Amino acid sequence: MPLLETRAVTKAFGRLMALRSVDLTVGENEFHGLIGPNGSGKSTLLKCVAGAELPTEGTIRFAGRDITAATPTDRARAGITFKFQITSVLPALTVYDNVLLALQARSSTASLIFSRTRKALHERVMHTLEQFHLAEGSMERTAAALPHGQQQWLEIAMALACEPRLLLLDEPTAGMSLEERRVTGDLLMPLKPRCSLVIVEHDLDFIRSICDRLTVLDQGNLLDCGTVSHIQNSSKVREIYLTRV
Amino acid sequence: MLADYLTVFVTRVLILALLALSFDLVWGYSGIMSFGQALFFGAAGYGVALLARDLEVTSIFIVLPAALATGLILSFVTGGFLLLGRQSPTRIFVALGTLTGSYLADRLARRWYYLGGQNGIPSIPPMTAGGYEFSEGRVYYYLAFTLLAIVYLVCRFVVRSQFGLALAGAREHEARITFFGYKAQQLKLTVFSLAGAIAGLAGGLYTFHEGFVWPNMLGVVLSTQIVLYALFGGVGTLIGPVIGVIAIESLGFWLADGFPKIWPILLGLLLLLLILFRPTGLIGFLVSESERVGSFGRPSLPRQVSAGADDAAA
């Protein structure tokens, strides 16, 4: 059984059809890339899966459960974590608190009030921060004080702190230098045994280097889907997308 | 010992500080713009006034819990309407909703004969505890002071807990923490109700202290005044709004003496200058910006990473 399955997902914004009957299947521990020109509906599809948008038609199933109408909170608690396209760390909080906030997201209100989880979770927060080279000064530095690339890493670190079964990344390397991109790839690869990934990305080299399978969208339509080599050799894709880039 | 009129004045200030504290909890920590704190304050005030007038219940063990409960229930219902929904309502929606609630309650009280109309309910008997009557100013002052201290400590415990961190998250970027799996709306409703309960408690205290209730206790003017107290003192600090109330009320008291005709204008100018040059409020003179924003949940554990920085700061 696939982990994530969208069937005939259609999303209309007024008269604009952002997605037309898109099927997407992602297996356990699969890294899946969504590519396509600007406005092809990649981000919209990701948002429909995360719950930021509700599809006009179609169904979305996650781990065997129909989540088409579930709230973002429910989806997050079921194991889907979404990283926004625009960097959206919590700027006024310290780097440390950003991760801590992500770590205890599924706690109940009462346990938050009376908990001393800060102590219990300390090791995990520091471990997560160290993986992303963010540990130093993390208790003093606010997230706003980090350079852009590191903010992106912090955001990925926060997403991972939730221990998702499915991680949705919307353009994680936007605005990063080549070196930072390479490091980001190195940071994502070890996750493969732990979760599945759906990633929207413009950098095709980056996406080729980490993804197992790719889905190509064009103007809201599903153009092709398959392994990286299949997509690279697909005449349809090459004609409509790759040659234009 | 304080002169009698000063005792009355200081007690009133302490009760208003309680109200300002409740506003800071919702706005400073949670980013909920509530122009309705007076609604919970006044409704609880009217509630206990009716208890005293119609049922002759004045026992502190009944009226103060009743005031607290009135504020809690009313704010829970109001918050349920204003804060919940598929999409989280915008700040301006919540601000206008609470403002409207406050305005409606004010109009209602003015027109309702049972509530005494424009004049409100006068000559409320003093609060009692067993056979004792809280008629002496000094005793009431100690009562108000103790309650303010307790409420302050409770609020401090709440905002410094992990709940406070989650609230700060909701304030900074609500959608973001929702996608982590936080029930952000539930968190906000919880803190809104807690603040409503505090405002209610303040309303009950105020009613028995003044000995009467009137529609202005519910209205927009008082609601706005609370916002000013908090901004003047510095939001997001709990202690800031308390300082704000003391400062504004004392200044008003003193200015009214020295400049009986133009004192409201002078006070307004002062407020304006402070907000323009010190947007963080009076508390901004005492603590740094980072302390102010991050003043929830400082780590209570060995800080290996930051030991050096800490020493330097000390």
Give a summary of the structure in a few sentences.
Chain A is α/β, with parallel strands linked by helices and 245 residues long.
Can you describe what's shown?
The complex is a heterodimer of chains A (about 240) and B (about 325). Chain A is an alpha/beta fold and about 240 residues long. Chain A folds into two domains: about 5-85 and about 165-245, P-loop containing nucleotide triphosphate hydrolases (Rossmann fold), CATH 3.40.50; about 90-145, no CATH class. Chain A is about 35% helix and about 25% strand. In chain A, the strands form two sheets. Chain A has a six-stranded mixed beta sheet with strand order 6-7-8-3-9-10, with helices on both faces. In chain A, a hairpin with a 2-residue loop joins β1 (about 5-15) and β2 (about 15-25). Chain A is globular and about 55 Å long. The mean pLDDT of chain A is about 85. By secondary structure, chain B is an all-alpha fold. Chain B has helices spanning about 5-25, 35-55, 60-85, 90-110, 135-160, 160-180, 185-210, 220-235, 240-260, 265-275, 290-295, 305-314; strands at about 130, 130-135. In chain B, β1 (about 130) and β2 (about 130-135) form a beta hairpin. The model of chain B is unreliable at about 295-314 (pLDDT under 50). The interface of A and B includes residues 88 and 101 of A.
What are the defining features of this structure?
heterodimer, A: 245 residues, alpha/beta, Rossmann fold, 4-stranded antiparallel β-sheet, 10 strands, 25% strand, B: 314 residues, two-stranded antiparallel ribbon, 12 helices, disordered C terminus
Task: Please write out the topology.
The complex is a heterodimer of chains A (245) and B (314).
Chain A: E1 4-13, E2 16-26, E3 31-35, H1 42-50, E4 57-62, E5 65-66, H2 72-78, E6 80-83, H3 95-103, H4 109-114, H5 117-120, H6 122-131, H7 148-161, E7 166-170, H8 178-188, E8 196-200, H9 204-210, E9 213-218, E10 221-227, H10 228-233, H11 235-240
Parallel strand pairs in A: 3-8, 3-9, 6-7, 7-8
Antiparallel strand pairs in A: 1-2, 1-4, 4-5, 9-10
Chain B: H1 4-27, H2 37-54, H3 60-83, H4 91-111, E1 128-129, E2 132-133, H5 137-160, H6 162-180, H7 184-210, H8 220-233, H9 239-258, H10 263-277, H11 289-293, H12 307-313
Antiparallel strand pairs in B: 1-2
